[in-house]
Predict the 3D structure of the following.
Amino acid sequence: MTVAAAGPVFSLREIPFSHRGSWFGLSPVIAEKTYAQDVHLVSHQAGMHAILRLTPTAETTVTATPHQLTWSGDGGRIDLAYEDHDTVRMQGHGLGLRLVAADPVLTPFSGPYFYHDPLDGSYVFTAYQTGRRYRVTLLSGRAEPIGSQALGTAERGVAVPGGQAWELAIEEYETARAPYSGTDTFEQVAKAARAEFDAFAAAVAPWRSDATPAAELAAYVLWSATVRPAGFVTRPAVLMSKHWMNKVWSWDHCFNALALAEGLPGLAHDQFQLPFDHQDGAGALPDSVTHSEILYNFVKPPIHGWALRHLPPAPDPAETYRRLERWTTFWLEARRAPGRPLPHYQHGNDSGWDNATTFDPERVVETADLAAFLVLQMRELARLAADPPTSARWLDQADRMRDALFAELWDGERFVVRGVRTGHTWSTSSLLELMPIVLGEELPPQAAAILAARIEAHLTAFGPATESPASQHYQDDGYWRGPIWAPSTVLIEDGLRRAGHIRLADEISARFRALCEKSGFAENFDARTGEGLRDRAYTWTASAYLILAAAHERRRRG
């Protein structure tokens, strides 16, 4: 009987059990904010779809570690481990299992079809939702099909009785494949899965220690959310989650790239480049990419120059330059009104801060964060340029953008927002309006000091709230109207540090790291209580922890 080795133990309600490269995971989370009683096999091909429900024949407790999932109860135990990115192995001792289709309804256009394959004796589900097949092969013990070849509404699946030892394999594949022929024991499968994760954790967090207690679990969140290339996903990609946030958004990916950069530079480069693989004719990046969908209805902020300056040299610098140049030119040509020196967002979604109070008066606006990001991006283009004249041109454009930022939006005490159509200006209590701190050493000292003081006023015990807690618009679960977010924290911490406000940068880093150690890697956090909100297995949050913890450990160790 296999006993799970020591390692971070986590709740499946918080983090799905999966494996690097796989498009499916094991979790009771079967849709957005929807939690089932039983663990399900949930695929992320063509969306997020609960395919199979796994129900032990007696009451059990589920324990998850990076390499093994275990159901245990008075009647025995069931263990599950990944053999490969598309195959899991299960074994049972004493406990039986019912493995049935999550959706009982089959129509001509939806649902599961199930049959007992005469070719090899396996049990096969075909799922309209994903367009894939799921094959259950019994390796030892007994099993009976339920609802084989049934149409309409019916229970469909496999029943493995208890009171015996049994073992099976489950595979996700397309149309046909050779009969399952794995020869490793379950113990070997679990040991190999553990070794693969350990190698990943050693690469991305070699500095981890008792002083960084969330590092190994953060590494698991990234490792398990990684999928192999398929559909529109052109490279190995870290999804934002293998819960319902199962996409790559065009700024989230930058933080995952940064977390992977030191130990796995090739995988980091893939994260950075994936949205650029789908750059449109105008040079814009898509809003998001997933297996079966690319969305262009919004964009995301141009933090890519900022990110690139923190990454190791690209293996294809000329192509990287060309792509970054087209992305920058998009903002300069398609997002500047005639006669205006500054670019604009068309909606809060373009900024990444979807519903921030900055956008309450008007949505089509010039903001200081956007100009600041482009200054940094043009500086990066100057660094990457192949010849001195091109480099000088980008430096000149960066200088002119920075000068326009202060001439147009700085009133001596704060940055304001300007409506492009009306010319009206305003300011709010949103942290977004303090994001020009990313300019760091480029900021005049007085402006940097003012921004730092205002950022400090946003701090709670857990980090910088995205809306001032003193604001009448603050909401504990208000998305970008209060909660603490990983990307804003990392960008602010970096800008403060480069601007010379080291004490405040250290404090923000420490509070956010402690927050993750307390509450995990949620999409965002209640700024007052530290409670994790929404999707609880968000990779850019895990990446932010790794980025900040690694930097802290380097400083601490000198």
DSSP finds 13 helices and 29 strands in the chain.
